[in-house]
């Protein structure tokens, strides 16, 4: 009996051991999935350095000059002056020609850039700052390729009597100024037909009143004769001075006012003619 029991116990142990040996092992934890190395990001494309833009060309800076500095400046150099309008010719196509002056000297501004609405502001006495190039044409010193701005201030020049300076080297020092001539005698001119007349329409007599031609006439003082002009863009055929010259007779003695313009010598632009006192 004990043997049977012992045998049963032995068999039970064998079966138990067999069962233990056949039992599946505990689930192994799978090795973590390996994370692929991150894709390398290609280096960003290099941005080309921006093209350098050339600095825009600008006018060289120039300081405001006195009249003496302007007079001493070389021709064809950039100049800047502050001056006062005394008169101007007709505006045309964005340009205007002005006769200007300060207390020390005068400036002729030829074909200065000007909007039409600004031309109406350039009344006698108006102060302007002008920048342009000092130039010369046939003896006339002028400022060309100019621009301007209007400033505060006013000055109207009184005519300077230069009668006694006619025929002297000192006269040109007053070029472009408002001047007067006293006791001038009208001398004959020759028209296109060879006739003696007191004045000519255009320099050679080829013009007319209706075409608003410049007027040219000869006057003398101290034994010398000079040719004066009524510039029609300044004083046209509807002005008093134009009519006064048309009424001249050879031998008349007259006083004149105008601007001391130069063309191969003194050739004033006359703005007033009256009988001499």
- How many beta strands in the DSSP annotation? 14
SS content category: mainly beta
What is the chain-wise order of helices and strands?
HHEEEHEEEEEEEEEHEE
Helix percent band: 10-25%
**Average pLDDT taken over every residue:** 85
List the helices and strands and how they pair.
Layout: H1 2-22, H2 67-72, E1 78-88, E2 95-101, E3 106-113, H3 116-119, E4 126-137, E5 140-154, E6 160-161, E7 178-187, E8 189-190, E9 196-197, E10 200-201, E11 215-221, E12 224-230, H4 240-246, E13 253-259, E14 269-275
Parallel strand pairs: 6-7
Antiparallel strand pairs: 1-2, 1-4, 2-3, 4-5, 7-11, 7-13, 8-9, 10-11, 11-12, 13-14
What does this structure look like?
This protein is 14% helix and 36% strand. With 277 residues, the protein is mainly beta. A hairpin with a 6-residue loop joins strand 1 (78-88) and strand 2. The longest helix is centred in the first third of the chain and has 21 residues, at 2-22.
Keywords summarizing the entry:
277 residues, five-stranded antiparallel β-sheet, 4 helices, globular
Summarize the structure.
The chain has 277 residues and is mainly beta.
């Amino acid at each position: 009996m004990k043997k049977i029991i012992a045998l049963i116990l032995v068999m039970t142990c064998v079966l138990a051991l067999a069962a233990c040996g056949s039992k599946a092992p505990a689930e192994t934890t799978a090795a973590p999935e390996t994370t692929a190395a991150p894709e390398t990001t290609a280096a960003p494309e290099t941005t080309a350095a921006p093209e350098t833009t050339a600095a825009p060309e600008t006018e060289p800076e120039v300081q405001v000059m006195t009249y003496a500095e302007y007079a001493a400046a070389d021709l064809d150099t950039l100049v800047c002056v502050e001056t006062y309008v005394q008169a101007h010719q007709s505006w045309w196509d964005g340009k205007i020609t002005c006769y200007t002056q300060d207390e020390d000297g005068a400036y002729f501004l030829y074909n200065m850039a000007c909007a039409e609405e600004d031309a109406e502001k350039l009344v006698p006495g108006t102060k302007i700052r002008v920048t342009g190039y000092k130039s010369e044409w046939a003896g006339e010193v002028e400022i060309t390729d100019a621009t301007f701005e209007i400033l505060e201030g006013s000055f109207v020049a009184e005519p300077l009597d230069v009668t006694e300076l006619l025929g002297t080297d000192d006269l040109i020092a007053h070029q472009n100024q408002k001047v007067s001539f006293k006791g001038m005698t009208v001398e004959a001119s020759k028209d296109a037909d060879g006739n003696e007349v007191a004045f000519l329409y255009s320099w050679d007599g080829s013009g007319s009143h209706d075409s608003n031609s410049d007027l040219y006439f000869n006057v003398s003082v101290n034994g010398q004769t000079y040719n004066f002009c009524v510039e029609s863009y300044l004083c046209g055929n509807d002005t008093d001075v134009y009519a006064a010259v048309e009424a001249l007779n050879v031998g008349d003695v007259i006083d004149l006012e105008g601007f001391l313009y130069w063309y191969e010598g003194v050739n004033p632009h006359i703005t007033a003619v009256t009988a001499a006192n």
